[in-house]
Each structure stands twice: as C-alpha cells, then as structure tokens.
Write a structure and sequence with these properties.
The complex is a heterodimer.
Chain A (H helix, E strand, L loop, with lengths): L1 H23 L15 E6 L14 H10 L4 E3 L6 E3 L2 E6 L4 E6 L13 H12 L17 H4 L15 E3 L4 E5 L7 H4 L10 H5 L1 H6 L7 E7 L3 E6 L13 E6 L3 H9 L5 E2 L10 H5 L3 E13 L5 H4 L3 H10 L3 H7 L5 E3 L9 H4 L14 H10 L8 E6 L5 H16 L5 E6 L2 H9 L7 E6 L5 H9 L13 H12 L3 H18 L2 E13 L3 E2 L15 E2 L1
Chain B lengths: L1 H27 L16 H10 L6 H13 L12 H36 L4 H15 L2 H15 L17 H27 L2 H8 L4 H31 L1 H6 L5 H10 L3 H29 L1 H4 L2
Helix pairs in contact in B: 1-12, 4-5, 4-7, 4-9, 4-11, 4-12, 5-7, 6-7, 7-9, 8-9, 9-12, 11-12
The chains are: A alpha+beta, B mainly alpha.
C-alpha cells in the first residue's frame, strides 16, 4: 500500500510541475497590441558562423543582422532588387574606372559619431588588408592597390591601405579601380562596403561583442549563440525607418522547432520553412506563407580539369545530360514548388532590365529523353560509361534531388547504372575535394548572389580562373564578352553583352542550370507587410506588428 | 580506502589521454575545416593560409595535439571559428546541460526507483504487469518520437508549455525535456530495481528483519532497498555521462543551447577546437561519475569498504 502512495506522490509532483511551467509560460514579449509601432516581433535565427563584421560575414544569418544595423552607399530595393542611392549623394565617373563619391550630409552612427568619407575609406582598407583575415576581402579586389594590401600568393603584405582610395574632403572620396567596371557603383549595396565608426578600430573586442552601425536598428542585447534583441533607433535619419519597435532574433537548433514555435504562438516569423512541413504549410498558415524567388540558382558543374570531360564532343554529352533531367517533375515532387525550373544562368529577381532572360537556355534545358540519348551517343557517350554526381550529404536535401536527377537520367538513357550519386560526408570535406580538383564527374554547385547584377551570376563563376569557377571552365570568347560588358558605360548595352556571354556558356554547356531557389517564410497573425527581399531575407524594417 | 581512490585516480590518466587523442585524430581526418568556412565558394588562398596559421592547422597533427593538450592544462581551450573562446562556450553550455541532466536524474531516481520498488514487491500482480508493459513501450519508442509527440501535444495542441526552451533554460522549462531525456533510462531503472528487489525479498536477512517484528517501512527502506540499490546506482552513475553527451537529440527538439547543441554545431562546422574541448570535458565527467559510483558502493555495502 505504501508503495502505491509513493507512486501517487511522484505522479502528483510531475503534474504540479507541469502546471507550474504552464503558469510560468505566459508570453512576456507579446505586450503592446495596439499597433503603435512600438511592439517587438520575434524571428528565427541561426548562429552566425563568423564574427559579426561587415567584411567578414558571408552567410545569410550574419548578413541578416548587418542588413538591420547598417546602411551603405547604395541599397537594393526589396521589391525590384535595383540598386538605389542611400548614403551616396552622387557617384560620378567618366571612364568607368575612376569614381568620385559624395556622401550625404546628416548621417550619424547610433553612437553619435558622424558618417564621413573617412568612415568608408577606413572600413574598406580594413576589409582589404590581409592581416585582418576578412573573408569578404575579395570584394575590394577591383580597387587599385589590392595586390599590395592582400597578396594572393600569401607573400608579405607591402601596404596597409589601398592606394586606389583617397579621402578628398569631409564627405568626398575617390576610388580608382585596376580595370574598367561600369556596374561597380551598383555593387556598393553589399554589406561588405558598409561604413565603420571609429569605435570599431579603437576597441575592436567591445565592438564585436555589441556592434554599432548606422541602420534603422541598434543592438540592445546580444547573447552569442542564443539571442539578439534589436530595437528601433529613434534617431535614424533615413526614410526607411523601422515600422516596429524592434526585432528579437532567436537562435534555433532546428528549423522544425522554430516552425512548431510559430504554430504555438511563441514566435512571430520563420524565414526558413522546413522541407518536412511544406506539405502542411498551406493549411497551417494560408496566406501567411510566403514563397517568392530569391537570387539563388543551383547548377551542376563539371570538372574541366579532367581531360575526359574536356575533350571535343563532350559539349554534346553535357547538353544531353541537361536534356535528360526532368526539372518540372523534380521541383514539383521533391521541392513542393519552392524551386522553379531554370531556363537561364541568372535569376528572375534581376528582372528583364537587369539581365534575366527567360528561355535563354532554349532546347538545351528542355526535357527530352530521346534527344538526350542521341546527343550523348553523338558526343561519344558518358566517360567510363557512368556519371557520378558528387554532393555533400550533411545539409540541405541534396541527396533527394541528386537521386531524382540520376533517376531521370537513367530513365532517359534506359540504363540503371548511367548515373549514381556520390555523397561526401561534410560540407568542409566537399569544399576540400573541390579545391583540390578531385571531382571525377558533375558536382552540385549553388550560387547565392552578392548583389542583384547579371555580372555577379557570370563573372565569379565562369570567367577563366575566377574565384568561384570551381569547374575551371575557360573560354576565350566568354572572357572577351565579359570584359567588353564591364567596359561598357551604358547599362542596357552592358547587360546585352553579358547575355551574349551567357549564350557562349549555353553553347558549350559550361554548367547545367537546374532550378532557381525560392525564399520561404511563415508568420503569425500579429504581423502584416511581411516580405522577403531578393536575398530571401525578411524586410524587417517594413513589418508592422499589431 | 585512500589507496583505492588514488589507484582509481591514476587509472584515469591514460584513459583521458587516449580518449582525447582519438577524438583529435577523428576530427582531423575529416579534412580541412577552413575549406567550409567561406560558404559555397573558395576561400581566397592568402586568407585561408592566414586562418590556418592562426588556428595552428598548418602544423603536423601530433604537434597540434601536443600544443593543444599543453594549452588545456593551463585552462586554454582555444578559439571557436566565430571568434568566441571555447571556455566561454562551455560557460554558457554546461550549466544548461547540467540542469537538464539534474532534472533527468531526478526523474530517474524518483519515478524509476519508486515504480521499481512497487512492482518488485508486487510481482505478478496487475500493477507489475502494467508497469512492465509501459516500460517496454518507453524503451522501444525512440526519444525523438516521444520528444516530438510531447512537444506537439503539450506545446501546440494543449498549450500547457512553450514548445521551445528560452535562453535562460530554467528548471521549470526543463521539466518536459528532462522527462523525455530520462524516459528510456527511467524504464531501465524501473526494471533493474524491480528485479533486484524481487530477488532480495526472498533473502534470509529480510526474513529475519520481518521476524524481528520491524515495521514494514523500515524493512523495505533500510534493509531491502539499500541492498537492492547497488546495480541501480551503477547504472545511474554511468548514465550521468551518457545523458550529458547524449542529450543532442532532446536538445535539438526543444531548442536547448547546451552541450549537445554546441557539439552538433562544432561537428557540422568541423570546428576542431570546440569538438575536442567539449569532448575532453565530457570524458572527465564520465571518469568522475564512475569514480563516484565506486565510492558509493562502499557506502552502500560495508564489505566493499574493506576490500
């Protein structure tokens, strides 16, 4: 009998404890429901991989914060992706190589310091200098003197600053590039080009603990690895003031938990709907689910350093493989329409004026098993009779789509063994094998744009020896057209040249375009005016909380 | 007794060195961690070389290990890739996981042993059978199923708890995750206690105690339970280490930023410093927990004290 009472006591303890958490679980940050612009919203976040410095942040999670606390010379329109003047009063050039930049008056950092020409020049010099280990240093690679401040071969750095940057007045500075680059001003909206206050240089450790910028939000508290509370900066001089009182970014270990929290009313905004929930998201959220194109394209790259893949006739095999992939079916069944079949090598977010041309790929990207089989036979067949598609298996749902692509190719070729997936354990190891040129067949490649320009989708990826040309594709005609495009001062003509280059890429099938990736988000009933910008990051300052 | 403790402490040294060396080698064969730091593009070679130098990755592995261990003894666990000291990560992660482990162990002891005693004393009766069935169910269902199910029911459907744990991770918030984490071990504790109690119930000293006319409560707690607890204590002791290192699934489900989460991030980002640092501490926890178990034996059974 006594034993039984013990059991009862334990059971009671549990239920009391449960009740206690329920009582203590009242939401603390959902106060202020009047829509006065003072209410704070909570949003899911991931732990940034690198310290939060503008020139050192190269992934979405850190970029999200920089986007809230910094404003640069230009800003990309969240709707159209067009680069518009923000802190820049004017950017002048006569030869696409020497630029004179005037900074607007009246801007300050949130600590009261004025934003001057020096704030930019110092920040850029810091970003470019090799000794600071900034992962985005290559953004300053076009500026003259970069080879001295950041010697690529790892030899001793001979200059601390870029010789191409000169402060000419309180609010003016000049930039000299090492080559013509007509769309250079449009790249200046990228966070790496953000201005930095003196406090960054005088007490760097303190600044990194709690970054200070000049954007619509300031950082209130930052607990590394778990939470960042940003509040609206009332003294913000720009016209894109925050429409809410602040944003609390919560780090989630798993995006499924974030989604569950949204369902339970414990979180307001999830900007990455987990793949497993895509089936229910329409019924769960209705029109509070956003699924819009982002500046991301996925492709299959080829190892052009391998003579098997680089001999003549192989362009037919590559085109044949492209035609053997049923993009429609894969995007629908595996990605639940969160990807769109690609018909060129850029992204719809550029818009037609920006260089996106639907159908530029033409027949080469259309599914046609019979044509695919013919092309591959004409080209001399698959090297070794089989293609292996290499991918990293640790993140994303790469395994699923690679298997589906292979399945599609196998069906087209009537051969069970024509294509197999080749998983690599970790992302780091995968990158390692790419850098060491160990790929023996096509491999997964993804590109998230740095800035919404057609140049950014072509030059870093396919120009001879470019930084992200992982397949080492090289084509004289392509390089020539890209150079011409960069020298062109008229934007429309430059875009035209880039598209000509893209056609060269198509005719040689330098990489198979697969699909454009969408950004997806879901939000609670408290929010309105939620949208994603072309980088698939929520436009936080426009969100209204009721 | 003193010599026994010293001997046990000395035994810990080779185990410690062997375990850390193994982990160090395992993380290192996974390839160059810097390669994964720049996202889907190649790091520019100069910066990559500089970063390697900064993290000491340009030296041979044995040299890296020696410097690393040398630093560890001075309390320096190195720097994680995001610029944070690993000791700082530990300071935030370990208290959370320790709290979670305490909750889990508490449930194991209170519920597990109570149920074990009840069923052990009532072998073959309906209570016994139903509890046995229940433990079988708990053992066979994986933790992530229990966790997700409880999260969905209590958190979303009924709204009793928040589905995720906040940054503070207070004891109150950790009750459900702790219960989930403890569930499988709890079932084992119940079964172990039950068997042990049922066996000892027949023994001479219990019969003597009953014959002496001692109150039933005293017989059960002082005589029967104390002797039956030895295997259970072993199990719970080794479980402390297992719970701390193995909380990774539970921590992911309930968004707890503890040791499991840091380890997961470290492995994903191939961050040698974080992974080796945390595992080193976990190895120590295992060793100390085992030592404590052995010392507890002596308390429970005087015969061991003089051995």
């Amino acid at each position: 009998m006594r034993g039984a009472t013990h059991a009862k006591w334990a059971a009671c303890a549990v239920s009391v404890a449960l009740a206690a958490t329920a009582c203590g679980g009242g939401d603390s940050d959902s106060g202020g429901g009047s829509g006065d612009g003072g209410a704070v919203l909570s949003s899911s976040w991931g732990d940034p991989q690198n310290p939060l410095e503008p020139a050192n942040t190269n992934e979405v999670q850190g970029g999200k914060v920089l986007d809230m606390i910094f404003r640069s010379l230009k800003k990309y329109d969240p709707e159209t992706g067009k680069a518009e003047d923000m802190l820049a009063e004017k950017i002048e050039t006569s030869d696409s190589q020497n630029f004179t930049i005037t900074v607007k008056d009246g801007w300050t950092f949130s600590n009261g310091e004025k934003v001057t020409a020096k704030s930019f020049v110092d920040a850029w010099n810091y970003g470019a200098s090799l000794k600071n280990n900034q992962k985005n240093a290559y953004f300053f690679g076009y500026i003259e003197g970069y080879d001295k401040a950041h010697p690529e071969d790892g030899s001793k750095q001979t200059a601390q600053t870029l010789s191409g940057l000169k402060v000419t007045g309180d609010r003016t500075f000049t930039v000299k590039l090492s080559q013509k680059f007509s769309t250079f001003p449009d790249t200046l909206g990228y966070p790496a080009y953000a201005p930095l206050p003196q406090a960054f240089f005088t007490d760097h450790a303190a600044w990194v603990k709690k970054p200070v910028g000049n954007g619509p939000y300031t950082i209130d508290t930052y607990t590394k690895g778990s939470q960042m509370a940003l509040k609206k900066w009332d003294g913000y001089p720009g016209d894109d003031k925050a429409q809410n009182g602040g944003v609390t970014l919560k780090v989630y270990t798993d995006n499924n938990t974030a989604y569950t929290d949204l369902m339970a009313g414990n979180l307001d905004l999830v900007d990455d709907v987990p793949a497993a929930q895509l089936k229910n998201v329409q019924s769960d959220l209705g029109d509070r689910y956003i699924n819009t194109p982002a500046g991301i394209i996925q492709t299959l790259a080829f190892p052009f350093y391998d003579s098997d893949w680089n001999k003549s006739g192989m362009e037919k095999v590559r085109t044949g493989l492209s035609r053997a992939i049923n993009r429609e079916q894969i995007t629908e069944t595996i990605f639940q329409k969160t990807r769109t079949p690609a018909t060129d090598w850029t992204s719809p977010v550029l818009g037609e004026d920006g260089g996106f041309k639907e159908g530029l790929c033409g027949d080469a990207c259309e599914y046609n098993p019979a044509a695919a089989k013919n092309l591959i036979e004409e080209g001399g067949g698959l090297p070794g009779g089989q293609v292996k598609i290499t991918y990293n298996a640790d993140t994303g749902s790469h395994k699923q789509w690679v298997d589906a692509v292979c399945n599609s190719i196998n069906n087209a070729l009537d051969n069970d063994k024509a294509c197999v997936g080749n998983p690599v354990g970790t992302f780091a190891d995968y990158r390692n094998q790419i850098t060491e040129k160990k790929m023996s067949g096509p491999f997964r490649a993804g590109w998230q744009m740095d800035y919404p320009l057609i140049q950014n989708f072509l030059q870093p990826l396919y120009y001879t020896n470019a930084s992200s040309n992982d397949g080492k594709w090289s084509n004289k005609d392509f390089d020539k057209l890209v150079n011409e495009a960069n020298a062109e001062t008229d934007t429309a003509k430059a875009v035209g040249k880039f598209q000509d280059a893209e056609e060269v890429l198509r005719d040689n099938m330098g990489a198979i375009p697969l699909w454009y990736q969408n950004g997806s988000a879901g939000y609670s009933e408290r929010l309105s005016d939620v949208k994603l910008n072309p980088f698939s990051v929520p436009v936080y300052n426009e969100i209204k909380v009721s | 007794m003193g010599r026994y403790v010293v001997r046990r402490l000395l035994q810990m040294i080779p185990v410690f060195i062997g375990a850390t060396l193994l982990i160090f080698l395992m993380v290192n064969v996974m390839g160059d961690p810097i390669a994964g730091l720049c996202g889907d593009r190649q790091c520019d070679p100069a910066t990559a070389a500089q970063l390697k130098k900064e993290f000491g990755l340009d030296k041979p592995v044995w040299q890296q290990y020696l410097t690393y261990m040398g630093n560890v003894f001075t309390g320096d666990f190195g720097t994680a890739f995001n610029g944070q000291e690993v000791t700082e990560l530990m300071r935030t992660a370990f208290p959370v996981t320790i709290r979670l482990t305490i909750v889990a162990i508490f449930f194991e002891i209170v519920i597990g042993i109570t149920l074990g005693v009840v069923t052990g004393l009532r072998r073959g009766r309906p209570v016994d059978t139903s509890v046995l069935m229940l433990t079988l169910v708990v053992i066979s269902v994986p933790t992530f199923v229990t966790g997700l199910l409880l999260q969905l029911l209590l958190g979303v459907e009924w709204g009793w708890i928040k589905p995720s744990v906040s940054t503070d991770a207070t004891f109150g918030e950790l009750i459900v995750p702790g219960l989930v984490l403890a569930s499988v071990s709890l079932a084992y504790v119940t079964r172990l206690t039950r068997t042990s109690i049922a066996e000892n119930k027949q023994s001479d000293y219990v019969r003597t105690a009953v014959a002496k006319g001692l109150p039933r409560r005293r017989v059960v707690i002082r005589h029967l339970l104390r002797n039956s607890l030895i295997p259970v204590v072993t199990f719970i002791g080794t479980d402390i280490g297992a719970l701390m290192g193995g909380a990774i699934v539970t921590e992911r489900i309930f968004n707890i930023h503890g040791v499991g989460y840091e380890l997961y991030q470290g492995i994903l980002r191939q961050n040698t410093q974080t992974v080796v640092g945390f595992v080193t501490v976990l190895v120590l926890v295992f060793l100390i927990a085992n030592l404590l178990v052995d010392l507890l034996y002596a308390v429970l059974d005087p015969r061991i004290r003089y051995a």
